[in-house]
Amino acid sequence: MPEVGKKIPALKGQLGDGSPVRLADFKGQWVVLYFYPKDSTPGCTTEANDFRNLYAQFRQRNAQVLGVSRDSQTSHARFAAKLALPFALVADTDETWCQTFDVIHEKVLYGKRHLGVVRSTFLIDPEGRLAQAWRGVKVPGHAQAVLDTIPAA
User: Nearest CA to 90 among 7, 147, 3, 23?
Assistant: First the structure.
């Protein structure tokens, strides 16, 4: 698990549109990497909408936004199209990104225990180091809090 101030491992994966992505592709930019449990669920939809609505402001601060979940490319493509997301979604079907950032933990839903993605966000600086981490995120106001952390360009 990356620590604040340390370099992020070289991760690569697939986006919802099928194209490849590498974190190294974003060197020189801030990267907001937000992990969420599942496409098209209420909390995840609200969070994606919040990042979408602030996306132009993130770009003004030289920041890219990437959403990550264990959903398939097909699911991501539908979710992104439905919400008109201007940023990419990483299909982490093999859980490499989730494991690297240690976001899969035991959760309880309706009294049943299961392993799931704990909503978390990581801010990576332009040199590829972890600048800040938010774990156990509550959606309301979170995207704005992340934006407020990034210095104006």
Answer: 23
45: left (phi over 0), alpha (psi -120 to 50) or beta: alpha
Domain 29-149 has CATH 3.40.30.10: yes
Per-state percent for the chain, helix, strand, coil, to nearest 5: 30, 30, 40
Domain ranges of the chain: 29-149
At residue 111 the predicted structure's pLDDT band, cuts being 50, 70 and 90, is confident
> What number of other Cβ atoms are within 10 A of residue 47's Cβ?
23
* Residues taking part in catalysis: 44
Q: Report the relative pairing of strands 63-69 and 30-35 from DSSP bridges.
A: parallel
Q: What is the pLDDT of residues 5-18, one digit of tens each?
A: 899 999 999 998 88
Q: Cβ(66)–Cβ(87) under 8 Å?
A: yes
Strand runs labelled E in the chain: 12-14, 20-22, 30-35, 63-69, 88-91, 104-109, 112-117, 120-124, 130-135
